[in-house]
Amino acid sequence: AIRAAIALGCEVQPMSTFARKNYFYPDLPKGYQISQYEQPLALGGGLDLVGGDTSRVALTRIHMEEDAGKSLHEGFLDSPRRTYVDYNRSGVPLVEIVTEPDMRSGAGAAAFFSQLRDILVWLEVNDGNMEEGSLRCDANVSVRPMGQQAFGTKAEVKNVNSFRYVQKAIEYEIDRQIDLL
């Protein structure tokens, strides 16, 4: 986490703490997650993109926390009626990198995610194996009418594990929110 923070130009904090973040989620049966959310490991930084619709994506923070389980909605005979939960990754430490809302398209987000993956693999911070879930993206999407300063209602697309699907999921969510407005 520190290696990633330094490479991304973050300010490593002299003190960070792990604390309980209490919330209910079906793949987190104990009702809390250990996280550095309130006092993160690093603040600021950013990534200068090569190409794309954004030249720089600023980072808010890098922190560590424990992973939750994984909800499974397909692959079983009764999947249309039931959700299964895989707890194998529950409690495993992970590094979370949070950006500022600097990306304006699915393509821009996919380009950022791809470049970030390359950096993390090069630094040996992550193996980059997206199929196994070693690297995932949670994308917050919000639209607003042109000229409006405040962001609209945000929706989070969770645990996307490919560049193509990050782009597709964000484009779908943008279109859905525009249709609602």
What's the helix and strand layout?
Blueprint: H1 2-7, E1 11-12, E2 19-22, E3 32-35, E4 42-43, E5 46-48, E6 56-66, E7 70-72, E8 84-86, E9 93-99, H2 106-122, E10 137-141, E11 155-160, H3 163-180
Helix pairs in contact: 2-3
Care to describe what's here?
By secondary structure, the protein is an alpha+beta fold. It is built from 3 helices and 11 strands, in the order H-E-E-E-E-E-E-E-E-E-H-E-E-H. It has helices spanning 2-7, 106-122, 163-180, and strands at 11-12, 19-22, 32-35, 42-43, 46-48, 56-66, 70-72, 84-86, 93-99, 137-141, 155-160. Strands 1, 4, 5, 6 and 9 form a 5-stranded antiparallel β-sheet that branches. The protein has a two-stranded antiparallel ribbon with strand order 2-3. The chain has a two-stranded antiparallel ribbon with strand order 7-8.
Overall residue-averaged pLDDT value = 92
Oligomer: single chain
Beta strand %: 25-35%
**Distance between the amino and carboxyl termini:** 39 Å
Principal-axes shape call = globular
Low-confidence segments, ≥5 residues, pLDDT <50? none
Structural class: alpha+beta
- Give helix % range: 10-25%
Number of strands: 11
SSE series: HEEEEEEEEEHEEH
Question: How large is the count of helical segments?
Answer: 3
Provide a brief overview of the structure.
The chain is α+β, with helices and mostly antiparallel strands. It contains 3 helices and 11 strands; from the N terminus they run αβββββββββαββα.
